[in-house]
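Exercise: predict the fold of this chain.
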Amino acid sequence: MPSPVAAAPSAAAGRVDTVYRPGGALDVRATLRPLQRGSGDPAFQVVGADTWLALRTPTGAASVLVRRAGADAVAVSAWGDGAGWAVEHAPDLLGRGDDWSDLDVRAHPFLAEARHRQPGLRLLRTNTVVAMLVPAVMEQKVTSRQAWRAWRYLLRRFGEPAPGPAPDGMFVQPTAEQWARIPSWEWHRAGIEPGRSATVMRAMRVAPALERTLGLGRGGAVVAERLQSVPGIGRWTAAETAQRAHGDPDSPSVGDFHVPALVGWALTGAPVDDDGMLELLEPWRGHRERVVRLIGGSGFRKPAFGPRMTIQDHRFH
């Protein structure tokens, strides 16, 4: 059984350490990759063999350092007011409780090979809903490049410098109350039009209720319904949030510009739409997001032709 070693304060002021033993293969980089919002993300940096995260936890800001500690262990260190919480929940962040044992892909050669090559892939669970929801809203109906640029601007402008010895330029995202106080012109400067910023504002007003959905388990229909009760949060945003916050293994990103085509090309050699993607994934119901992650992590790329999303710069409208 996976077993984290009890967290212990370090001699370094404000530092808390633990060692997590997952009890099986664990690919740290692949597991944490969904938290990275582009190569210049102020909240996620890879330095050599180290992965640094700047997290907003329920008890405050935290800088988290994750590194291998031998073949069967991962060392986690954290600094800041949220250090204790971050270390306590580090096993969930690294895939504890994510059970792939019922996923049978042997009948599909591509997926069988993808699983064989990625034995350490796990679905993470951050246990922080608002922190996953806000960047998902920013990514609605725009290119990743636009959303990541806005994310960088707002974190550097309104975030908190990452505590402890985190690499220079790392920032922890604002609290729900701080997000709600960002003025409209700053959202505009970031390239976020009023529709998306208004969605963030509405979500921040019910932030405690959104966080309580963590008590409903690893996602599912009830979690999706609760998240979508906020006007402006649809199926795609709810899925993107639940995949990360709750560790939902069965919520593929319906409505995504790229995912259905990627799934179609990988599984059948031809693009499909959302309905086609869901039909292809149906044999693995209960694991559909796991299958998508296997495809995404396999290195497979769909052919580079077809329509591209039009880039709209809302900063100058």
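Check your answer against the key: Strands lie at 3-4, 8-9, 15-21, 44-47, 50-57, 60-68, 74-79, 160-161, 171-172.
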